Amino acid sequence: xSAAPASAFEIFGMKFFENDDEEAAAAVIDPVNYTLTxxxxxxxxxxKEAIENTARLKQDEGKPVSGDLGLVIKARDDRDRILAALxxxxxxxxxxxxxxxxQDLDSLxxxxxxNQRGAVxxxxxxxxxxxxxxxEIAFSGDAEGRNPADYGLVxxxxxxxxxxxxxxxxxxxxxxxxxxxxxRLTERNATADHKxxxxxxxxxAEGGPVAPVGEVGVSxxxxxxxxxxxxxxxINAGQPYSPEALTKAAERLRTLGVxxxxxxxEADKLAPDGSLPMTIEVSEGKHRYFGVGAxxxxxxxxxxxxxxxxxxxxxxxxxxxxxxxxxxIGESDIGNLDYSAGILFSKPGAFGPASTFNASxxxxxxxxxxxxxxxxTAAAGVSIELSDTDTVSAGGEVMWSDVEDAFGKNKYLTLAxxxxxxxxxxxxxLNPTEGYRAMINAKPSYEIERGTFFSSFEGxxxxxxxxxEEKRFVLAGKLxxxxxxxxxxxxxxxxxxxxxxxxxxxxxxxGYQEISPRDGRNKLLGGRSYVAATAEARIGVTETIGVVPFxxxxxxxxxxxxxxxxxxxxxxxxxxxxxxxxxxxxxxxVPLKKYPGGTSxxxxxxxxxxx
Length: 611
Fold this sequence. Notes:
With 611 residues, the protein is mainly beta. It is 13% helix and 45% strand.
């Protein structure tokens, strides 16, 4: 007999060229191979897929199990799992027959030995039987009076077991939403009548007393102030009990970034005063962090960013972040690159648990085609959460800028009061499939050097609509507009405050800030108003890969109201690759109305959807 070729070797404990089958066999004690014959007994594609996906012997086909007894245990488990899958499809009269080594599963001894020279044959035969429908449905106890149809239980409809389970769970959820923290099911019974092929259901619940929130404790903190944790959670003794409020409180604490886990545990009984005590259990994560990032486009070159931060500076989740970036690498000479640096500070709960104080100091040197500017900006402000979806912010800003543009060299010292309102109902900030985000802001400003008052106003709305149960197809749209009112001449407004379009964030296919009014020398001026719109079709090809055809349209005008005399559009297609931290994005676009001597196409790469 010739020896089998070696497919792996080991040096100093490290294995090389080892295939998955060898690794799996080495990990299994007393490996037993098997062959499987699975007859789902149906032509219904959905039911057949459910049976096959449930059977672990099917999913692990080709992999050995541990011993003859291990094979029998896995076969018994599969029989139970397939029966459960049949119940989920309302097949309560189904029969699953399993043989191992030619013997019926129920006739095997406690310690079977098959003594097979080769793989042990396993046969699973399924007789699904007919689909049952709901018969009589009764809610009793504190569930009485509720409409079963509101819980998915409709007489005559297919009686999937999952509907019965979910109905019982929802009854308890609804009772707890009424402020009854001790609500529980007392009965959830389903009786199948094989003669009529119907299922009668009885669901009973006990709501328990209405109770307010009691004493709220905090555990697990090390460097974070526990009093701050309780205050920022907005869970206070005496307030009505609400599961939704508890869920939102946990999410709110997680967004601080200082905790690796947050759990709110409720007591299993009421306190003597009739309230429900609870404890916020947290586990602190690493407070210091650093990182780097990058993005690329053929029109703007390569951009690199670096940052360092602290998430708990003084013990109440205050954050400090130092960041710097350099961009347009490869697109411009080293002396004309863009640079920026900044210090950002944030204190959550500064003026109440719904408020956050923000301050920043930033400096930048930018040299796009429209202008060259050195700017330093100091800003401070407060944002307040009006609700789970609505936020308003206001503050003050001082910006000094030294600008060289189509109007020559000018210096500006500008005071501004930025005010913004945002409503955000998106289901996912990084990769939304439902909801919308609407923003409107105003920035009254005074330019000291010229004694000029002017104000900018901008608004934008993005919307998302998914189709299909798996939400593999999403239509996304964005509409934005802005205007600047005041200032006798366009030169009275700093170039960094004028409007430009073009590039990865606005109209793809054009260069950065390429869409702009121009003077007789074809110099970019920037505008007082703009309108931009984007439409995307986000199509999931697989669980991780998607394609995105898109079109962007925009116009910029020197008037306070857009004149739409020069409308530019770019179209293209993108590729998305899903990761745990958001989709990786690669877009390619071309301008549909190219400027003479302008950009012919754009390639953009980054993390997250384009909007």
